[in-house]
Amino acid sequence: EADIYQTPRYLVIGTGKKITLECSQTMGHDKMYWYQQDPGMELHLIHYSYGVNSTEKGDLSSESTVSRIRTEHFPLTLESARPSHTSQYLCASSEYKGAVGELFFGEGSRLTVL
Amino acid sequence: AQTVTQSQPEMSVQEAETVTLSCTYDTSESDYYLFWYKQPPSRQMILVIRQEAYKQQNATENRFSVNFQKAAKSFSLKISDSQLGDAAMYFCAYTAHGGATNKLIFGTGTLLAVQP
User: Does residue B42 belong to the interface with chain A, where contact is any CB pair within 8 Å?
Assistant: First the structure.
């Protein structure tokens, strides 16, 4: 099992609420990622980070924001949740000099916005 | 733009039998990597196998092997001697070589059921 953890695993929340999805890894990986996964659809990269104080938007536009203040921590925040944000969010990390494409994933955070 | 297509939303196989999952991709790059990831129900996604495009030899990892056809842009996964633990969603993925970000492009996945 990879040492990358996501909380909460499941969250049901009302429209307009602010939420933060937590992601932590204990492997010392420099690179971290957030993917959005909808049922029956491919994973889409929404944010990634090369290291502390480095964040970039991914291929899929997202209203969420991320921060990388510590190497091990890469939280994702939605300031005002909407039903369109309902999805599963997967956090992943990889080693800077590791094998190409070898990402280590968390178990995911399933968000439902009512 | 690069795309990855998995045309089989669901597949089923009997325990101990062999199953092949299909994947096609589109890219203008000549050097890239292809992957199969496995996502068991409510568990972490893990890397199953990786293929480097410049290597003609098909990758193999124990019961898992690929059939990489570069000209046809096809990358199928064969699972031999299927086990109940192989039941999962399988994703085909692509990344261009030299992509320092490790940004993967995923297909829509194939849900594999293993019948006892």
Answer: yes
